[in-house]
Amino acid sequence: MTKTARFPNAQPPATDKRPVVDTHHGVSRTDEYAWLRAENWQQMFRDPSLLAADIRAHLEAENAYQADMMADTEALQKTLFAEMRGRIKEDDSSVPMQDGPYAYGTSFKTGGEQPRFFRTPRDGGAEDILLDGDAEADGHAYFRIGGADHAPGHDKLLWGYDDKGSEFYSLKVRDLAGRSDLADIVPDTGGGGVWSAAGDGFFYTRLDENHRPSKVLFHRLGDAPEADRLVYEDLDPGFFMNVGGTRTNDWVFIAVNDHETSEYHVLPTGDPDAAPKLVRARETGVQYELEEGGEEFFILTNLGDAKDFRIMSAPAADPREQNWREVVPHEPGRLILSVMAFERHLVRLERKDGLPRIVIRERASGDEHMIVFEEEAYSLGLVGSLEYDTDIIRFSYSSMTTPAQVFDYDMATRERTLRKTQEVPSGHDPDAYVTRRLMAPSDDGELVPVSILYRRDTPLDGSAPCLLYGYGSYGIAIPASFNTNCLSLVDRGFVYAIAHIRGGKDKGFAWYEDGKRQQKANTFKDFIAAARHLVAEGFTAHDRIVAQGGSAGGMLMGAVANMAPEAFGGIIAEVPFVDVLATMLDETLPLTPPEWPEWGNPLASAEDYATIAAYSPYDNVGAHDYPPILAVAGLTDPRVTYWEPAKWVARLRERKSGHDPVLFRINMDAGHAGASGRFSRLEEIAYSYAFALKVTGHS
């Protein structure tokens, strides 16, 4: 059976051509499908009903086409959904975390889509529901809670929600005595805030019309949002900004950063009218993060050519650089990922030899010890604590075969207490599966780690299908963690693989640097190398590999489709960043100026223009025999705008040879993260997995 025989012989929607020409650095390019970008996109993100009728009609036609092409998988999708749902403990609950007289946590009720926020007495007792996400979401097609934070006096709850998918969050304050929200509603925020010490107001970031957090304000309870005090404003559109607090509730940290440079300002929570103090002025390429430490701050930084970072300290009363002193020196090859400070201990999460580890340091003596793990490959998360004066921290652990575990760890006695193991109600036998880590040689000789999972009875003779996942941007490392969803493929004979390609920090900071800007092509070559190595080692065959990636990983999908379409039997590109050149040329878009350090600035640099133009998926679609491609997007996505995949799909159909289809599915009620409910999100995953099964002949 040929690949084309698996899909109906239906015609995709015709896309009008309305050519627009732009010229930069003496180079002209024509975009026939630029009209798919809504001229009123800022307003449309807030109110999707404002989308132009011709664009809406086109997107709805795309949805109708993909539904027809995937109609024969509807039963399979329902089966996959039921399987994945069956692996979720529906009435699941986190382990409550102690803070003062209470312990706080989140839970779900059976059948519930949204989390509930609860607390219990400190040492245990009945759950007291503070915020019921399902009740708040009632009547909304989309609803996502940005978070919830209790006031220092435990009498109020600050919480945020987005009901469009556009990531413009509104903030509300709940009176925990009466369980009712105050009249205060603060719109267009980043989704969270920091309470004042007195609990009479909160600091937050305000988003402008281009979705940039350009202001930090203080809202005093009872005041109109229009009267909120401007605490700090940054007019540089190339920087993100957020506010954070401390476990002691003493400080507000205002963090200003792009992908390679950072700057902090601090002010006391006890004096909301104080002017923020600058810690160290931004300097291109210098990164640092602040962490509380009582009378001192700890600073995680790459200052001083510390590529893999070191830890400094400074007095909280005057944390300027001239007062910094080294606590943990830089060690090449040991990447320090994060640091948390407590009254008697300093805790850091670091990665060495490709694996994460937790190191505990006694602040008084400087003595250190590590928390040790036995498996060869695993995922580790540092949860920490809500309290500062404690010896107990929390961390999470899993591997591709081991369900997630939550431990409390006594830093003084070194006692480890298992608090929770992820339950798989439908059952899970770790011994039925095998996880391995391969090293795939890339074209320049670099060895690319590839984590794989398969059933022990899967034949390794090249006949098994494979889902190969990749990301490779922003320094984000993809952990080899437990994933109940992928078991639906693995149990059907798939090899599930993660390519830890350059552009992430999986092998240290240099691994990231060697996969960005002028070196971006390494990201794509590494992924192709991973696919070829899996074939060479007998795990699969090229026409049985389905590649998958989302966002910047969706850009990866577009690039490898252009560079090596013969290496893949199918491609799934979720919210794909495929129109890289046009987006980086448009400084009005929400994320463009802050993204220039990652990709380059093609407006200012002819070299950057040429670099991006050489790989931008939309600009490099050719007359190739592409495999079946699925693109998935959200209408109100401010990170990867819907028109990027819409244009890419149209151009693929126009220019490609061969007969394999290109499908485009757009959620008209969601943004970058897809559906907001935990089960509705599973429906989207089931759809993508059904596509993977279909193109490999398993539907």
UniProtKB/TrEMBL annotation:
GO molecular function: serine-type endopeptidase activity
SUPFAM superfamilies referenced in this protein's UniProt entry, alphabetically: alpha/beta-Hydrolases, Peptidase/esterase 'gauge' domain
This protein's UniProt keywords: Hydrolase, Protease, Serine protease
Gene Ontology biological process terms in this record: proteolysis
Region of interest (Disordered), residue spans: 1-25
Domain Peptidase S9 prolyl oligopeptidase catalytic: 481-697
InterPro entries xrefs: AB_hydrolase_fold, Pept_S9_AS, Pept_S9A_N, Peptidase_S9_cat, Peptidase_S9A, Serine_Peptidase_S9A
Peptidase S9A N-terminal domain ranges (all copies): 12-421
Bias (Basic and acidic residues) ranges: 15-25
Pfam family, one: Peptidase_S9
The keyword Repeat belongs to this UniProt entry's keyword annotation: no
Stated family: Belongs to the peptidase S9A family.
Protein's name according to its UniProt entry: S9 family peptidase
Organism, scientific name: Nitratireductor mangrovi
Lineage of origin: Bacteria, Pseudomonadati, Pseudomonadota, Alphaproteobacteria, Hyphomicrobiales
